[in-house]
Design a protein that fits this description.
Elements lengths: L3 H32 L1 H5 L8 H38 L2 H7 L4 H41 L7 E9 L2 E9 L4 E11 L2 E14 L4 E12 L4 E11 L20 H13 L5 H29 L6 H28 L5 H21 L4
Antiparallel strand pairs: 1-2, 2-3, 3-4, 4-5, 5-6
Helix pairs in contact: 1-3, 1-5, 3-5, 3-7, 3-8, 5-7, 6-7, 7-8, 7-9, 8-9
Length: about 350
């Protein structure tokens, strides 16, 4: 059962957090409007309506960025109001009554768990659909150029592989194209072309400067030419790189998508696995950052809030830096994606326990 002091800490925690996150979101919206003003105004006859801007974009933009910033602003909020409590000798007074430090942490952890639960629910159940609407709006009004795929290697189906050096989305043109078909681990067909272009009217691919090599048990047949129309079991959408797509998927859709990409040999599988694991790791980081913030800010020091905020910001940037480093290792295949995402949490929970062990009591 919570006591009066617990309710006091919880109310201060939540009030400080929601005020801080509201202020940063207001600033974020202002900067976003100024940055994307051309897209919001639009071209004559192609401008978004006011209700589209408010309901389709900013109504979904605000929870997305609020959830993204929430662990960091939980940390800053705890540093701020706990430092004020320490400067007014409230922390010392509570501990002087015989309350243990771990008991003092209870209302902090309860508040952090509450925010982490909201964040987890948003991330896994609400934001995928919300992001779908937001991303569609961004593509329609803000997208200035499509992504270009480079060094594309993909398995089309069992025994079929496609390779390109570069794909120009605007021109529907792939350079240095190669197609291989395997049967019983043996190459039976290989098509190479200087470049291929998609004819959207006929649904055909045009091969330019091509060589076709066919293999059977006894011989190899080679054909070559300058231009040929043919069909493949893929369209230009096969080459388009849309990394934001995973933000719009539910957990079940994301799992299915990852398995499909694995079967195709996609080089972005680790990127998708990082997104999958971050959906659980990021909310959990709220609790860990709270464990770190309380012992940092509860010590009464000469620098007061300024010193505590400096220490807190340094610790927060250390956390973010480590997270970026481990993510980079995972993208380069040096760490398992789940380990890369959770390793900063594992490390900093130990840091938090050490700080609590040596906190001023």
């Amino acid at each position: 059962m919570f006591k009066h002091i617990d309710r006091y800490i919880i109310s201060r925690f939540l009030a400080t957090f929601f005020v801080a996150i509201s202020l940063i979101l207001a600033l974020t919206v202002v900067f976003d409007v100024s940055e994307k003003l051309d897209g919001l105004i639009g071209r004559p006859g192609y401008a978004p309506k006011l209700h589209e801007i408010l309901l389709d974009y900013y109504l979904n933009f605000i929870p997305y960025f609020g959830n993204l910033f929430s662990p960091l602003f939980v940390f800053i909020s705890v540093i701020f109001f706990t430092s004020r409590m320490a400067s007014r000798l409230e922390i010392i007074s509570i501990l002087a009554t015989g309350v243990s430090y771990w008991r003092l942490l209870l209302p902090f952890l309860f508040s952090a768990f509450l925010i982490a639960s909201i964040s987890w629910g948003l991330t896994n159940f609400i934001l995928p659909h919300s992001n779908e609407v937001r991303v569609a709006f961004e593509k329609k009004y803000f997208s200035k150029r499509a992504e270009t795929s480079m060094n594309f290697h993909r398995q089309l189906s069992q025994g079929e592989f496609v390779f390109i050096e570069r794909y120009d989305v605007r021109a529907n043109r792939a350079s240095k194209f190669a197609y291989e078909k395997m049967r019983n681990d043996r190459l039976v067909l290989k098509i190479m072309s200087g470049h291929i272009v998609y004819d959207s009217l006929n649904g055909h691919w045009q091969l330019h400067d091509y060589i076709i090599r066919s293999f059977d048990d006894t011989k190899e047949t080679v054909r070559q030419g300058t231009l040929m129309d043919t069909t493949f079991a893929f369209t230009p959408a096969f080459f388009k790189l849309d990394l934001k797509k995973i933000e719009t998927m539910s957990n079940a859709e994301l799992n299915t998508f990852i398995e499909d990409e694995k079967s195709k040999g996609s080089e972005y599988v680790n990127f998708y696995l990082i997104e999958k694991n971050q959906r659980n790791a990021n909310p959990f980081s709220t609790i860990i950052l709270t464990l770190i913030a309380v012992p940092i800010a509860s010590r009464k020091v000469r620098g007061g809030i300024g010193f505590h905020l400096t220490m807190g910001v340094a610790m927060a940037f250390s956390y973010i830096f480590m997270m970026r480093v481990t993510t980079t290792f995972a993208l380069n295949g040096l760490l398992q994606p789940w380990l890369a995402v959770w390793l900063p949490n594992f490390f900093f929970i130990i840091v938090g326990i050490v700080l609590i062990r040596f906190a001023q009591k």
